[in-house]
Structures are given as structure tokens and as C-alpha cells.
Amino acid sequence: MATGVFEAFRTLVRIPALLVAYGAAVTILMSFVTMFFGLNEFAVKQLHLSPERILWLRLISMTGVVSALFCGSWIRRFGPVRVLVAGFLTAAAGLAGEAALSGVNMALFIAATVVFVAGIAAAVPAIISRIGLLGLAARGMALALYGFFVFVRKSGPNPGRCADALRIRGFMRDAVRHHVYGSGRFGVERQTVRG
Predict the structure, then answer these.
(1) Are residues 123 and 195 in the same domain?
(2) CA dist., res. 109 & res. 105, Å (int)
(3) pLDDT tens by residue, 153-193
(4) Do 97 and 170 sit in the same domain of this protein?
(5) Which range marks the domain in which residue 69 is found?
(6) What is the SS3 assignment for 55?
């Protein structure tokens, strides 16, 4: 059974178009996570929004996922490749709109985030359909590899976790430094007073 799995894997990695599809899938996941992390940082540092307002901003942005409900009919009509390209272009337009409208109009900025999410939501079903078609007889293994990449991306480091880790590390370093040097100064002062 293990031999069959490895044979299917060797067959899949020899399909260039499938490797491109996997690369596109990873790009979709990374861009989605990175955009929302950047949105949170921007909302805190530049817009000075409260946690409640940031939550509402995220919820409104996520309304773009409704586009995924129409992807089945779009894929049947236009094919997965066209839907995937359209999803990428829509997401890129939304991201460009966020960059251009961030300091101009809040309503338009939020609309741009909705457009970005709509593009990503349209691209995900299209990339899954594309991977299934390219997998041919090993379609199950092809989709399993897609699931593997999704779980690796979710469990791996992302910008938010890295930033949190750096903050915690910096806080711990400062706390230890203060404790060590503070205790040293206190000890010196105490000895001076005794003397």
C-alpha cells in the first residue's frame, strides 16, 4: 500500500501544471493570512481602532466569501482556470485598492477588503477543481497533497505568530535584563549602605 502511495506521488510531481497549481494554492493561503495580519496591524497603529471595531472590520471583510457559493456554476461555465485567474485578478485589485484608499476613505477601504476576500474565495474552489482535474487517476492523492499543504501552512509560522514571538522574546529579554542589573544595583547599593 505504501508503494502505491509513493508511486502516485512520483506520478503527480512529474506533472508541471500540477506543481504550478500547488504553488498557486500556497500563494492564495499566504496572501489571505498575511493580508488579515497586516489589516490588524494597520487598524491598530494607523487607524487607532478599538478591538471591537477591528472585529467588525474583519467581519465585514469576510462577507466576500459569499462569492464561493457561486463558484460551482462559474467553474462549469467558464472552467477552473478562468475562474482562478479571475479570482487572482480580483484579489489583486482589492489589495491595490486597500493600499490606495487606506488614507482616503474608510468606507472605500473596507469595500476593497471585501473585494480582496471575494477574489480569494473564488480562487480556492477553482484551484481545488484544477488540482482534481490534473490529478487524473490519482485525483485522491492530488487532493490529499493539497490538504497537506493547507495543514502545513496553518500549523507553520505566520506573520502574526512570528511577531508575537518576537514581542514575547523582547519582553522576556528586557525583564531578565532588568532583573539581573536591577538586582546587581540593589546589591551594590545595599552593601554601600551597610559599609
Answers:
(1) no
(2) 6
(3) 555 554 444 444 444 444 344 444 444 444 444 344 444 44
(4) no
(5) 2-156
(6) helix
